[in-house]
Amino acid sequence: MDKLVIEGGKPLSGSIVIQGAKNAALPILAASMLVEGNVTLDQVPNLLDIEVMLNILRDLGCKAEHKNQTVWLDTTGVQSSHIPESLMRQMRSSIFLMGPLLARFGEVTIYQPGGCAIGERKIDLHLRGLMSLGAQIEEEGSRVVCYAKKLRGAEIHLDFPSVGATENIMMAAVLADGLTTISNAAREPEIQDLQNFLNAMGAKIIGAGTDTITIEGVEKLTPCRYPVIPDRIVTGTIMVAAAATRGSVTMHNTCPSHLTSLIHVLRRAGVQITVDGDIIKVGSANRPKSIDRIVTSPYPAFPTDLQSQVMVLLALADGVSIMKETIFEGRFKHVDELCRMGADIRVDLNSAFIRGVPRLYGATVEATDLRAGAALVIAGLAAQGKTVVEQIHHIDRGYDRIETMLEHLGARIKRVSSPVNNLIQP
Ligand SMILES: CC(=O)N[C@H]1[C@@H](OP(=O)(O)OP(=O)(O)OC[C@H]2O[C@@H](n3ccc(=O)[nH]c3=O)[C@H](O)[C@@H]2O)O[C@H](CO)[C@@H](O)[C@@H]1O
Ligand SMILES: C=C(OP(=O)(O)O)C(=O)O
């Protein structure tokens, strides 16, 4: 089991290029199953979740190669529309294959997906959306079998703007007969990226990025080459790390407009941020200021995927802050670990009350999920002394060798296998 060992207290400084977005690449890889032929995707990060998705695609009969951030797919051999339970369980995003495989083969068998333990994460909105398009669904235990000779367009209203359900319905509706509208659709940038990819293959979709998406079904798609957007959550993680260590970092290959809510929050905390095209510079020499209330909500509001990272900054702020999590009920697991490092945080229902402390202290802590793990890494970078972050396979799901990226910014961080003592000379 790998661990990260961090000798904290050194401000991050320098510049880095941000990786492509996990949450855009995963649905786009799934959407590639809608077409027959060679699809090439650029800016695909080297992540555990991408590896799992490529293994699922190979299991379905697709040829897949991933080298230097480019993925080459040959989907002509895809025959199967059955995803084994062991593969489904490896991540939540396996669910993205339901819509495309159903649209291409008229049937699909999947199992309840796995993923980080951050909440219940039902798939009812996905299933109801597909049923509205004419699919019949049979559930038996964790197995879900879905049939439809030909999907037909429909008006679908989502009770909640679920990112994954919006994407699954879009992918299924692309080859359906007639027009589909999704109202109360999620508006995340990754949904716009999926629309752009599908349209590049000949789909007719408008409205992604707003709460109403319209899909006019087409007969057939044509393969294409497509670059995935930059990862706004990785960008945000580094921005917070720069601020928490009172460093100065320049990030290239970013989409600042995707980070408006974070930029606003960090500026309120007293962090200096400048934006120039696709470059974001973050600098901070002073103790952060507390923020009375941050609430996570669907895009464009403050993202749940940056909640734990920003909590580290607030844990070091001058004053009391409140963070309310409204998307996932199990997303405060980093709090106990941060308290082990000296943070003063109390959780009541879905709100965390954060009384800032002047400093955190190194400790051995456990990453319980992807973003909780990223938060603990930031805490370790800012803390006095040595921090060991365990269970870092969670972090590898979303950050392409996080230690290499941070080392490049001057951090004293190493990935090690046990034993961990004496591997870093301060
Ligand atoms: C790969 C990917 O893009 N992952 C992101 C996506 O996850 P994901 O697509 O799973 O997130 P959703 O927007 O679907 O989930 C949001 C909320 O809706 C609930 N829900 C969802 C679907 C459903 O059928 N029924 C239901 O009740 C979930 O339990 C959760 O409470 O959006 C989340 C919210 O921004 C992010 O944290 C994830 O990083
Ligand atoms: C929760 C996340 O991802 P997933 O939906 O893939 O579990 C995340 O990226 O923070």
Automatic annotation (TrEMBL):
<keyword id="KW-0963">Cytoplasm</keyword>
<feature type="binding site">
    <location>
        <position position="327"/>
    </location>
    <ligand>
        <name>UDP-N-acetyl-alpha-D-glucosamine</name>
    </ligand>
</feature>
<dbReference type="GO" id="GO:0051301">
    <property type="term" value="P:cell division"/>
</dbReference>
<dbReference type="InterPro" id="IPR036968">
    <property type="entry name" value="Enolpyruvate_Tfrase_sf"/>
</dbReference>
<dbReference type="InterPro" id="IPR001986">
    <property type="entry name" value="Enolpyruvate_Tfrase_dom"/>
</dbReference>
<keyword id="KW-0131">Cell cycle</keyword>
<comment type="function">
    <text>Cell wall formation. Adds enolpyruvyl to UDP-N-acetylglucosamine.</text>
</comment>
<keyword id="KW-0961">Cell wall biogenesis/degradation</keyword>
<dbReference type="GO" id="GO:0008760">
    <property type="term" value="F:UDP-N-acetylglucosamine 1-carboxyvinyltransferase activity"/>
</dbReference>
<feature type="binding site">
    <location>
        <begin position="22"/>
        <end position="23"/>
    </location>
    <ligand>
        <name>phosphoenolpyruvate</name>
    </ligand>
</feature>
<dbReference type="Pfam" id="PF00275">
    <property type="entry name" value="EPSP_synthase"/>
</dbReference>
<dbReference type="GO" id="GO:0005737">
    <property type="term" value="C:cytoplasm"/>
</dbReference>
<keyword id="KW-0808">Transferase</keyword>
<feature type="binding site">
    <location>
        <position position="305"/>
    </location>
    <ligand>
        <name>UDP-N-acetyl-alpha-D-glucosamine</name>
    </ligand>
</feature>
<dbReference type="InterPro" id="IPR013792">
    <property type="entry name" value="RNA3'P_cycl/enolpyr_Trfase_a/b"/>
</dbReference>
<dbReference type="GO" id="GO:0009252">
    <property type="term" value="P:peptidoglycan biosynthetic process"/>
</dbReference>
<protein>
    <recommendedName>
        <fullName>UDP-N-acetylglucosamine 1-carboxyvinyltransferase</fullName>
        <ecNumber>2.5.1.7</ecNumber>
    </recommendedName>
</protein>
<dbReference type="GO" id="GO:0008360">
    <property type="term" value="P:regulation of cell shape"/>
</dbReference>
<keyword id="KW-0133">Cell shape</keyword>
<keyword id="KW-0573">Peptidoglycan synthesis</keyword>
<comment type="similarity">
    <text>Belongs to the EPSP synthase family. MurA subfamily.</text>
</comment>
<dbReference type="InterPro" id="IPR050068">
    <property type="entry name" value="MurA_subfamily"/>
</dbReference>
<dbReference type="GO" id="GO:0071555">
    <property type="term" value="P:cell wall organization"/>
</dbReference>
<keyword id="KW-0670">Pyruvate</keyword>
<dbReference type="GO" id="GO:0019277">
    <property type="term" value="P:UDP-N-acetylgalactosamine biosynthetic process"/>
</dbReference>
<dbReference type="InterPro" id="IPR005750">
    <property type="entry name" value="UDP_GlcNAc_COvinyl_MurA"/>
</dbReference>
<feature type="binding site">
    <location>
        <position position="92"/>
    </location>
    <ligand>
        <name>UDP-N-acetyl-alpha-D-glucosamine</name>
    </ligand>
</feature>
<feature type="active site" description="Proton donor">
    <location>
        <position position="116"/>
    </location>
</feature>
<comment type="pathway">
    <text>Cell wall biogenesis; peptidoglycan biosynthesis.</text>
</comment>
<feature type="modified residue" description="2-(S-cysteinyl)pyruvic acid O-phosphothioketal">
    <location>
        <position position="116"/>
    </location>
</feature>
<keyword id="KW-0132">Cell division</keyword>
<feature type="domain" description="Enolpyruvate transferase">
    <location>
        <begin position="7"/>
        <end position="404"/>
    </location>
</feature>
